[in-house]
Design goal:
Number of strands: 27
Strand order of the largest sheet: 3-2-24-23-22-21
Radius of gyration: 20 Å
Strand content: 35-45%
Distance between the termini: 46 Å
Structural class: mainly beta
């Protein structure tokens, strides 16, 4: 195992623990916010209420706060893939319909609640003819090809579009993001691991790689390396072929490395990092740190119509109550403001998010939260106890 190359420094303020200088909202403050049509903006030492529009998606008995995948179709329809339901909105997230997602044989999922019964719960995209494209859920420690599936009936049935084989050196793989970029190209991010051992003496590798398809997922490029030690990646378009990847950067402490401040156990890093692509995902570089607090990790980007970038991440280890929090950049990700937005909250789990940009420049963020207390410590306890909310807001129009 070698030290990483290419990490060029810190992209954010020196301490992202208390951006905006305001007192952290309490659990009661956040619970009230979650139930109301506003979010909290921390700036200039104060918390401000910012009006937003919220709607609740249909409840999924197999839903989980970490199973949130959204896509906007060329005709404006918005799709959200949960544990067993495929949800759709034709009015920019104001109202939703849902139906049980089918499998490759056209059968509806089993009534038994369990993740193994729902193999099509991953990331989706919608191409120009309305076909839903999905990355098969055959992840983990397996050697069989990754299935790229397509559906012409909004996820009620699926057919095989392609089988994608990763380089043989990897013994684990985990899908994270599928996105339509430049209006025609599918970009797929995968975390690939080989003989990864976290405990001392640490060994193995973890790579975040990107695949491109220009024919609706029928054929794919060779993978390009986004970064070492990357996982949970998602991408925003900045125009002119430029992409910003938001990555969970996680690696163990190296044998010859002092324990970094704030490290947990043998993990030296568990933070949000950023990486850039100037050419639509063919090449990547400029890996840099965004969050400075260990455990401020899963991040997903959103871009408002004026170009303001919002990176929504969780704060599962604090400081302050765990919540879904946002960092802001108004210069294409070069610098990040001393501000924060508290966007959503669950007393058990404040989970993942996915966002789409609407025609008027607003952002629709799909967020997952759970108030089931056992879910704080047991991952499976959130299944069936999850609320998914659509929040329409504009990070470029925050009053401070």
């Amino acid at each position: 195992m070698t030290h990483d190359q290419g990490v060029v420094g810190l992209a954010a303020p020196a301490d992202t623990g208390n951006l905006g200088g305001a007192p952290w909202p309490s659990r009661d403050d956040l619970a009230e916010m979650q139930a109301s049509d506003y979010v909290l903006h921390a700036a200039g030492g104060r918390l401000h209420r910012v009006p937003v529009a919220k709607s609740t998606l249909p409840h999924d008995p197999a839903g989980h706060p970490q199973m949130i995948h959204a896509a906007r179709a060329p005709d404006g329809a918005i799709f959200v893939n949960q544990g067993s339901l495929l949800c759709r909105s034709d009015d920019e997230g104001r109202t939703w319909t849902a139906h049980a997602r089918g499998d490759a044989a056209g059968r509806e999922p089993s009534a038994v609640v369990g993740l193994d019964m729902y193999p099509y719960r991953g990331p989706i995209a919608v191409i120009d003819d309305g076909t839903l494209v999905h990355v098969g859920s055959n992840d983990g420690i397996r050697s069989d090809p990754i299935e790229i599936m397509g559906s012409a009936d909004q996820g009620r049935s699926w057919s095989l579009h392609a089988e994608l084989t990763l380089p043989t050196r990897y013994d684990e793989r985990y899908y994270h993001s599928l996105r339509l970029i430049e209006g025609r190209t599918l970009l797929l991010l995968f975390c690939c691991r080989d003989r990864l051992v976290w405990e001392p003496p640490a060994s193995g590798v973890m790579h975040l790689v990107a695949f491109r398809s220009s024919d609706g997922g029928r054929t794919w490029s060779e993978p390009s390396l986004v970064c070492d030690w990357g996982t949970e990646g998602a991408v925003a378009e900045l125009g002119g072929g430029r992409l910003l990847a938001v990555v969970r950067y996680q690696r163990p402490r190296m044998p010859d490395e002092l324990e970094p401040q704030g490290a947990r156990g043998n993990l030296a890093w568990k933070h949000v990092f950023l990486a850039d692509s100037p050419d639509g995902g063919r090449t990547w570089g400029n890996l840099r740190q965004l969050t400075t607090v260990f455990g401020q990790c899963f991040g997903a980007p959103a871009v408002a119509g004026d170009g303001t970038i919002a990176v929504i991440h969780d704060t599962r280890y604090g400081p302050g109550p765990p919540s879904g929090r946002v960092m802001l950049s108004r210069d294409s990700g070069e610098t990040w403001a001393d501000e924060a937005v508290y966007l959503y909250y669950g007393s058990g789990v404040s989970g993942f998010s996915a966002s789409v940009t609407l025609d008027d420049g607003d952002v629709l963020s799909i967020v997952g939260a759970c108030d089931h207390e056992p879910a704080r410590t047991v991952w499976d306890a959130a299944i069936g106890h999850t609320q998914v909310t659509a929040i329409r807001w504009n990070p470029g129009k925050l009053a401070s």
